[in-house]
Amino acid sequence: MTATRLDGVTTAASIKQELVTRVATMRELGVTPGIATVLVGADPASRLYVGMKHKQSTAIGLKSIQRELRADARQGEVEQVIDELNADPECHGFIVQLPLPPQLDANAILERIDPAKDADGLHPVNLGKLVLSVSDPVRSPLPCTPRGVIELLRRNDYDLSGKHVAVIGRGVTIGRSIGLLLARRDVNSTVTVTHTGTVDLRKHLLGADVVVAAAGVKHLVTAADVKPGAAVVDVGVTREFDRRTGKYEVYGDVAPDVAQVAGYLSPNPGGVGPMTVALLMANVVEAAERAMAHSV
């Protein structure tokens, strides 16, 4: 058996094309959805990531707003920028690029974001609304990466209803938040959350129809850990310096031999990463649509 590859690049491109149409409709009505980023310092990886987001956002018709501060910026300076974006009617969603310099209180800064403009979908208010929403439609931004995992499976004709999903990882970005989406009635999965401290991790994984690996441990999941035919989604990232090439290599949580056992496999890189960016933009477009509806 060779697993069917879940191509996040192609699937994300389809989502962005749908957003092009929605953005064009709003622009005809006089509203251009605006996405903003706040970058503190000049970390090369963060600058590259922010630049990529703005390039893709501009391509689908969004207004791009970039706010940059020095690496030694004080807490009050960053909070002032947050307040300005919260009040800016042309900004419908924004992110503060992480990590932040050590002198800043990251939690206080992230919580200062207007929940309606939370492009990442990880504001405590929005996570709280998701906790309270089991059956009703969700009218707040959703966590981008968990949503990306679900959309990647669904758009490749994988039905999650009734499936047992084992999640590896307990981080806020995905491990602690994806279960809230998977357990909603419109998805209808049963979720087991595991982590690197779980006793007999293999036992939990072998009983799962779907494995979402988000621990950040290189090749943690091997073929021996996966039930034949299971869907495996690799979200974890490990960067190792290769002395031979002088470059950092990126590895996922899932070992290459899993492809010989799984029925579906989303690789890393090339899987959920592009989906996360596409759904970040979707959150902004949806926020703009909600704002338009409220103004009518």
Account of the protein in words:
The chain is of the alpha/beta class. The chain folds into two domains: 27-114, Rossmann fold (3-Layer(aba) Sandwich), CATH 3.40.50.10860; 143-275, Rossmann fold. Helices cover 38% and strands 17% of the residues. The chain contains nine helices and eleven strands. It has helices spanning 8-28, 44-59, 75-87, 106-111, 124-132, 144-154, 178-182, 201-206, 272-295; strands at residues 4-5, 34-40, 63-69, 93-96, 164-168, 190-194, 210-213, 231-234, 238-242, 247-251, 264-266. Strands 1-11-8-7-5-6 form a six-stranded parallel beta sheet. Strands 3-2-4 form a three-stranded parallel beta sheet, with helices on both faces. The chain has a two-stranded antiparallel sheet with strand order 9-10. A hairpin with a 4-residue loop joins strand 9 (238-242) and strand 10. Helix 1 (8-28) packs parallel to helix 9 and helix 6 (144-154) packs across helix 9 (272-295). The model has no long low-confidence stretch (mean pLDDT 95).
